[in-house]
Design goal:
It is built from 21 helices and six strands. The protein has 400 residues and is mainly alpha-helical. The strands form two sheets. The chain has a four-stranded parallel β-sheet, with helices on both faces. A two-stranded antiparallel sheet has the order 3-4.
Length: 400
């Protein structure tokens, strides 16, 4: 049976950088093509690959694609992935991996807590088809343009970099706040992105430049606090992340109620938590049968508590991206630098470690972080994935 191979964006870009050399004629491309022909590997891609290709373009002030040579590279990247994957091996996005992990945990502890998986499976398949379709469009339509989507993607990427630049101005304050939020599981209903959404992108870029000039290297004491509390921070932040992922998968209350059985979750609360003596929270214990069957707020509040608790124990996939974020932040802040704008993309690439057999990247920093995450998945969940950096390592992993 072929091993599932995931190719990080930097490797794909290296294979496609020269318009005069087809990707199969490059050393790496030839190795991958040969392994695929032998049946040793099958290449998979992901939504984040497609989104990065989508952003491989120059844009004007209205975020419209401009006709530059960069578009030729975009087409080559998309065409290579279409060939490598037959435009059908599209991995689920991170949100579906994470929600599926929760469903698996509940299914083991209290099978009746899951009414059915029909809506989840439908939503996941639809998402994979949409991204496969976008990949095909990028390969076929050189001037493909979606200004609103581009704005959202760029804003997310730039906002992430802006936050990191603020952290770099005062790493000690960042770490103290991060640890406090994690230990107290501090949450808010405020729209924390409102400030950034209201500002022009150029304004955000200018603040990044200002903060970068004022960046201060993280001292050893601060780095020690971060290392000591890294796991607790990853667990807390991943619990909050799961709530956003649930909202991305289940677009309305009725889909949640169709998937989860509130009464069963209440009745098996202790079993789900691994402590049969544990009582459900008061609001859940006192919920009437009618509320359990039809009140999505009761279910949502119960799930929020489950996220918080299970992210610390058995929701392994939730912690992989946060391990990467914290590792990258630690490396950069120690040097008085800020992570690249692609860190959020790197995190979603790293999430693919949980479903692939081989993960290929040339990016030295991501390589080291991916190896850490792979070790965590192996030790905590028994999932083995080889992280490789070159053709020789790829061949060895494929034929092992």
């Amino acid at each position: 049976m072929p091993k599932k191979l995931y190719i990080d964006q930097c490797c794909l870009s290296k294979m496609c950088e020269d318009a005069a050399i087809p990707w199969k004629a490059t050393k790496l491309g030839g190795t991958i093509a040969a392994l695929a022909t032998e049946g040793a590997v099958e290449v998979w891609t992901s939504p984040v690959n497609v989104l990065e290709i989508f952003l491989c373009a120059d844009f004007d002030e209205q975020n419209r694609v401009t006709d530059t040579p960069k578009l030729d590279l975009r087409v080559r990247l998309a065409q290579a992935l279409v060939e490598l994957t037959d435009c059908r091996r599209m991995a689920p996005g991170f949100e579906f991996l994470l929600v599926r992990n929760l469903l698996q945990v509940l299914d083991v502890a209290a099978p009746a807590a899951i009414r059915c998986l029909d809506y989840f499976e439908f939503a996941r398949t639809t998402s994979q088809q949409v991204y496969a379709g976008l990949l095909a469009m990028l390969a076929a339509l050189r001037l493909l343009d979606r200004p609103e989507a581009i704005d959202n993607l760029l804003r997310s990427k730039i906002t992430s970099r802006l936050l990191h630049s603020r952290f770099a101005r005062d790493p000690a304050a960042l770490v103290d706040e991060m640890v406090a939020c994690a230990k107290e599981f501090r949450v808010t209903t405020d729209d924390i992105w409102a400030e950034f959404d209201a500002r022009p992108l150029q304004d955000l870029r200018e603040e990044i430049d200002q903060n970068t000039v004022q960046a201060t290297p993280m001292d050893n004491a601060t780095r020690g606090r971060l290392q000591k509390n890294k796991r607790a921070v990853a667990e807390a932040y991943s619990a909050a992340e799961l709530g956003q992922c649930m909202a991305s998968v289940f677009h309305c209350d009725s889909f949640l109620l169709m998937t989860f059985d509130t009464a069963t979750i209440r009745d098996h609360w202790g079993v789900i938590h691994g402590n049969e003596a544990m009582e459900p929270p008061k609001f859940l214990a006192e919920a009437t049968p009618a509320q359990c069957a039809s009140d999505a707020s009761v279910l949502a509040n119960a799930l929020q508590i489950l996220f918080r608790d299970l992210a610390r124990t058995c929701l392994l996939y939730a912690r992989v991206p946060d391990e990467v974020v914290l590792g990258e932040l630690e490396m950069c802040l120690a040097k008085g630098e800020i992570p690249t704008g692609g860190l959020s993309f790197d995190c979603e690439h790293a999430a693919m470690l949980s479903t692939m057999d081989i993960f290929l990247t040339h990016d030295t920093r991501l390589l080291n972080l991916a190896k850490r995450a792979a070790k965590f998945l192996s030790e905590a969940g028994g999932w083995h994935v080889e992280v490789v950096a070159n053709e020789k390592q790829l061949q060895a992993a494929a034929k092992a």
